[in-house]
């Protein structure tokens, strides 16, 4: 078992602590939280060992799980990596692209692995459909959330939209060509609602909308590709694949058949890939343990996290 320690015992940090404590792949050594009152409360309530300094915790573990505010990701990761520890870093990887690139270099120099917490890669609705997504040419994402003061210290792009940026970059086999975007600050000092249009060199276009001031929650992405449409509902954990195929010689009487202006007929097939229930946060943490033990590539690498952050900052710079 890998010895692991958690930096940060806020809302998400406590979830990580609970899951790591349950995991058969980790031995939870303890945690560090800079807020002394919160640290004592968490330690007394759950029985986790509370370390007084980050350095003391790092000495005792193999893996450091960084669930602190984004502004502190770089310093936490730097100290852990320089001590030869593997790092799991919550998204976004760091506050700036320069910091992210520095973390990548440090990890390589110190021969340690890193993974970024882009948890939607482990959403069962996405994992059920991702093998069906092949060379999409138009993607539409809506990630809408009701207002929550937590997370408003960063623009909605870094808080919410970055999830979809990472998903898109993972399925589009091309480089970004152009980005157009707009954002509006309504309640916070940074944009609370944003829209971005990402154009790729292969012709694919992705249209993303993110809001943290909506009246209802929605996390849905639709992928359009040659002869197929794939819908992934990250919130409801549902996937649907709609395929267009040539009409057989003797179609079923209930078959849905479309005919275009040229007279070409296509039959529509509906498929709902089986979605298996899982805990996406536990999965991302445990697959990272597997990558360390087996010396394989993590599912969401430090490079992946850096690319998503770079696109996010390009979007913000367009506001």
From TrEMBL:
Domain called Gfo/Idh/MocA-like oxidoreductase N-terminal: residue spans: 2-118
Record InterPro entries: Gfo/Idh/MocA-like_OxRdtase_N, Gfo/Idh/MocA_Oxidoreductases, GFO_IDH_MocA-like_dom, NAD(P)-bd_dom_sf
Entry superkingdom: Bacteria
GFO/IDH/MocA-like oxidoreductase domain: residues covered: 156-216
Gene3D superfamilies: Dihydrodipicolinate Reductase, domain 2, NAD(P)-binding Rossmann-like Domain
Name of the protein described by the UniProt record: Gfo/Idh/MocA family oxidoreductase
């Amino acid at each position: 078992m890998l010895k692991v320690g958690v930096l940060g015992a806020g809302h998400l940090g406590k979830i990580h602590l609970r899951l790591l404590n349950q995991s058969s792949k980790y031995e939870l050594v303890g945690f560090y939280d800079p807020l002394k009152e919160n640290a004592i409360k968490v330690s007394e309530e759950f029985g986790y060992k509370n370390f007084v300094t980050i350095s003391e915790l790092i000495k005792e573990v193999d893996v450091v799980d960084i669930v602190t505010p984004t502004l502190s990701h770089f310093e936490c990761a730097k100290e852990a990596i320089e001590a030869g520890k593997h790092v799991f870093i919550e998204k976004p990887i760091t506050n700036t692209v320069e910091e992210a690139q520095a973390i990548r270099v440090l990890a390589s120099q110190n021969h340690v692995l890193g993974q970024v917490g882009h948890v939607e890669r482990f959403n069962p609705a996405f994992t059920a459909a991702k093998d069906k997504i092949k060379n999409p040419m138009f993607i539409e994402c809506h990630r809408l959330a009701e207002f929550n003061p937590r997370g408003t210290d960063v623009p909605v792009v870094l808080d919410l939209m970055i999830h979809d940026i990472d998903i898109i970059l993972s399925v589009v086999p091309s480089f970004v060509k152009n980005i157009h975007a707009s954002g509006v600050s309504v309640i916070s000092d940074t944009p609370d609602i944003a829209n971005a249009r990402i154009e790729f060199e292969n012709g694919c276009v992705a249209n993303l909308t993110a809001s943290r001031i909506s009246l209802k929650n929605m996390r849905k992405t639709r992928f359009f590709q040659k002869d197929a449409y794939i819908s992934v509902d990250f919130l409801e954990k549902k996937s649907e694949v709609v395929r267009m195929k040539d009409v057989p010689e003797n179609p079923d009487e209930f078959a849905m058949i479309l005919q275009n202006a040229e007279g070409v007929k296509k039959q529509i097939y509906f498929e709902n890939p089986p979605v298996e229930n899982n805990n996406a946060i536990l999965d991302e943490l445990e697959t990272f343990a597997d990558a360390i033990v087996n010396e394989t590539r993590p599912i969401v690498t430090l490079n992946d996290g850096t690319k998503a952050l770079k696109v996010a900052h390009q979007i913000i710079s367009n506001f």
